Automatic annotation (TrEMBL):
The keyword Oxidoreductase applies. Transmembrane segments: none annotated. This is Alcohol dehydrogenase/alcohol dehydrogenase, propanol-preferring. It comes from Salinimicrobium sediminis. Belongs to the zinc-containing alcohol dehydrogenase family.
Length: 350
């Protein structure tokens, strides 16, 4: 009897939080009450202030990520404050505002990690996939997955920068471009509208490439010097008329659209793909041989790359265009994102 009473008393002292959980492959998000997590020795407990909804969250909802386990709370664009740190955490303190992106931790032991290539860790964790993410009032994360957030950015503005922002910023800064180069951004959506801003603020001659004039005014507002409507003109010819692109950053996951811009590359031009599509891009060796052209891809980055992205964004006042929803409207918010109706990133507020 004493044991039963003791267990009952323990239950009364449990701290409960709300979360949006996917309980099975293809299932809807359900608002549930879960026990507030406790950080392990090398983790931090985060009180979530904002969490972006990313297209990659479909991996959880649709069950397409290898090894995904249910139930699972998604979310890898998380900003909040540290409420508690694990006993072995030294560099983070209670009350700090921090963020967690796609890269949710690494093992420090595999060959890429031993070479400092943490983004390619063979045992890498993904926030909201390997462990519960930010569609909740609280979450825990490994200390190496945490990035400091500058005070100039609001939590809602900063959240999408931890995936969409870092993806395009890190790709651009590692592409070899120099101020004055012609840089084309294919697709003016959640990633592309940030890529245009970053390219402009890095000093590039920036071309926005879209299939509709509906993005023309937005592209100009974001700073693009040129706009190409692919429904009205051949984008490759249009880019060649501008001198040929040193870099084309492919942000829209439409393989035919990416294929259509390959011949717009100039000498030593690079087509850099960050759009996650499983469909093949068609290109022949002859298209690349003359002019030393190349195709490549770029993953997002580590927590330190996230910090660099956030700091550059604060310095240059580069922020995403967002729509905010309360956690309770997660199904409505997710549908806005997955149907491409959102302009341009969706953010949940617990």
């Amino acid at each position: 009897m004493a044991l039963i009473i003791n267990n009952f008393n323990n239950l009364n002292h449990l701290e409960i939080m709300k979360a949006a959980q996917v309980q099975e492959k293809g299932g809807d998000f359900k608002i549930v009450e879960l026990e507030k997590p406790t950080p392990k020795a090398k983790e931090v407990l985060i009180k979530v202030e904002a969490c972006g909804i990313c297209h990659s969250d479909a991996f959880v909802k649709d069950g397409t990520f290898p090894g995904i386990e249910y139930p699972r709370v998604p979310g890898h664009e998380v900003v909040g404050t540290i409420e508690e740190v694990g006993k072995e955490v030294k560099m983070w303190k209670k009350g700090q505002r921090i963020g967690v992106g796609w890269h949710g931790g690494h093992c420090f032991e595999c060959d890429p990690c031993r070479r400092g290539d943490f983004i390619n860790c063979q045992n890498a964790k993904v926030s909201g996939i390997s462990y519960d993410g930010g569609y909740a009032e609280y979450m825990t994360a490994p200390q190496e997955a945490v990035a400091s957030v500058p005070e100039e950015l609001s939590s809602a503005e900063a959240a999408p920068l931890l995936c969409a922002g870092i993806t395009v910023y890190n790709a651009l800064r590692n592409s070899g471009i120099k101020p004055g180069d012609l840089v084309a951004v294919q697709g003016i959506g959640g990633l592309g509208h940030l890529a245009v801003q970053y390219a402009v603020k890095m000093g590039m001659r920036t071309v926005a490439v879209s299939h509709s004039d509906s993005k023309k005014e937005l592209a100009k507002e974001l700073g693009a010097q040129h706009f190409i409507n692919t429904d009205k003109e051949d984008p490759a010819k249009a880019l060649q008329n501008l001198g040929g692109a040193r870099l084309i950053l492919a942000t829209a996951p439409v393989s035919k659209a990416i294929t259509s811009v390959v011949d717009g590359l100039g000498i030593d031009g690079k087509l850099l793909m960050v759009a996650a599509t499983g469909e093949p891009v068609e290109v022949s060796p002859m298209q690349l041989l003359m002019g030393r052209k190349s195709l490549s891809g770029w993953p997002s980055g580590t927590a330190k790359d996230s910090e660099d992205t956030l700091n550059f964004s604060a310095l240059t006042q580069t922020v995403p265009k967002i729509e905010e929803y309360p956690l309770e409207k997660v199904n409505e918010a997710y549908e806005r994102m997955i149907s491409n109706k959102a302009r341009f990133r969706v953010v949940l507020k617990p």
